[in-house]
């Protein structure tokens, strides 16, 4: 039998005891060692990324809890869904005004220095809301307390800013990171309302809000403690406002229309389920849509993007518009809640690629040193669109038919597509 060469000899095994099986085992082991890791494994192999991501996920989960918890808490104690809806709408409007200012401070002074006090102030607002509800305080105090929560920092935007800082020279890895962040958004907004409804129903009406406060503060403290990965502050930014940056206004208009898709879909789905006697299943149906988006986001992130984000954007919007016709057809032609759930899951698969590409464009078009502000403006556009879409979907469901209301998200997606195409055709 020929003697194996020294490089084929396993470490620690005498040369004269090596067999052919041992050489084969070494060969297989070497092949396993050289097998390249997947894109997500490479992403989180970077120092500090797991730590700030863990803190951010803890802080982001309450974003899907606070609104539902407030509605359940206020409606359960005051007996008025109208009051509960008005209070949450006021908080949404306050967030639209305050969030860009908080993001601007984050860019100038650093994430840790601004996010922690802003979060603590917002937590005090939530605790004040609980006390006002428990003590049967006047209605105006509920509006004031919930408006104070508008200082909650955009934790998703801060996480994306860290990835953009760490992966500035590796666009493919940044694409994977943005995909993960979008999947995380979908996961949190899928689990948040379910967790809030469970806590408020199983324990007491204030349990959802109190748990959300604890998670938010804990998550932000963990996130802010990871100083090594945060982008450096730009104390005297010379760049102009993101609102005036080239290509940003039409992109924010697309965010507004996309938000209308989300808001109208939620309201119309609840109205449809209620009209067919399946109101309790509405949350499960909406969770399936978020699940479809979450899965699609992770898959999209593992693929190598073809072409620039500006070229992919209208294609993603076209796919989302086409897929949103499935819930409309399922509702109008069959009236089946089961088929609607399947259709919403399928429609959700087009949501994540669209949002991932949109956020990639926001990162490209936002001036240097103002990335948190630019992404927060995009989120503000989405929130404004959600409010408008909720109103339009509710009006259509009440004055026409719940099934016809699914035409609202299709229309909103088509408007977003037309804006994107018009910008590419006519430019600024």
TrEMBL record:
It comes from the Bacteria. Pfam families: MFS_1. InterPro entries: MFS (IPR011701), MFS_trans_sf (IPR036259). The chain crosses the membrane at residues 57-75, 82-102, 114-133, 210-229, 250-273, 279-303, 315-333, 339-362, 374-397, 403-422. Keywords: Membrane, Transmembrane, Transmembrane helix. One of its GO terms (molecular function) is transmembrane transporter activity. PANTHER family: MAJOR FACILITATOR SUPERFAMILY (MFS) PROFILE DOMAIN-CONTAINING PROTEIN (PTHR23542:SF1), PTHR23542. This is MFS transporter. It comes from Streptomyces adustus.
């Amino acid at each position: 039998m020929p003697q194996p060469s020294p490089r084929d000899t396993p470490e620690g095994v005498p040369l004269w005891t090596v067999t052919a099986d041992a050489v084969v085992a070494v060969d297989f082991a070497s092949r396993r060692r050289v097998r390249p890791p997947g894109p997500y494994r490479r992403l989180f192999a970077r120092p500090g990324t797991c730590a700030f991501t863990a803190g951010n996920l803890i802080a982001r989960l309450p974003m899907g809890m606070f609104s539902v918890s407030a509605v359940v808490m206020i409606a359960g104690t005051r007996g008025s869904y109208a009051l509960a809806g008005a209070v949450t709408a006021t908080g949404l409007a306050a967030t639209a005004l305050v969030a860009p200012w908080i993001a601007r401070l984050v860019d100038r002074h650093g994430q840790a220095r601004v996010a922690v006090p802003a979060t603590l102030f917002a937590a005090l607002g939530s605790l004040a809301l609980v006390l006002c509800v428990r003590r049967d305080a006047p209605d105006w105090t509920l509006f004031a307390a919930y408006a104070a929560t508008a200082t909650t920092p955009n934790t998703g935007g801060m996480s994306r800013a860290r990835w953009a800082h760490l992966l500035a020279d590796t666009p493919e890895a940044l694409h994977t990171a943005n995909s993960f962040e979008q999947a995380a958004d979908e996961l949190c907004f899928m689990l948040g309302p379910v967790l809030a409804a469970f806590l408020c129903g199983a324990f007491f009406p204030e349990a959802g809000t109190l748990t959300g406060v604890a998670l938010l503060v804990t998550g932000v403290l963990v996130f802010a403690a990871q100083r090594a990965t945060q982008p450096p502050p730009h104390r005297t930014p010379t760049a102009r406002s993101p609102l005036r940056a080239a290509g940003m206004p039409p992109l924010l208009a697309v965010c507004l229309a996309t938000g209308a898709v989300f808001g109208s879909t939620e309201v119309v789905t609840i109205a449809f389920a209620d009209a067919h006697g399946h109101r309790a299943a509405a949350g499960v149906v909406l969770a399936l849509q978020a699940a479809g988006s979450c899965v699609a986001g992770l898959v999209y992130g593992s693929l190598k993007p073809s072409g620039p984000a500006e070229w992919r954007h209208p294609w993603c919007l076209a796919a989302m518009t086409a897929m949103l016709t499935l819930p409309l057809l399922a509702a109008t032609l069959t009236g089946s809640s089961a088929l609607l759930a399947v259709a919403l899951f399928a429609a959700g698969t087009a949501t994540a690629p669209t949002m991932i590409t949109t956020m990639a464009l926001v990162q490209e078009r936002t001036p240097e040193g103002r990335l948190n502000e630019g992404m927060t403006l995009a989120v503000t556009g989405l929130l404004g669109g959600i409010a408008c879409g909720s109103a339009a979907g509710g009006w259509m469901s009440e004055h026409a038919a719940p099934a016809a209301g699914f035409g609202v998200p299709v229309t909103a997606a088509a408007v977003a597509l037309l804006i994107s195409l018009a910008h590419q055709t006519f430019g600024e």
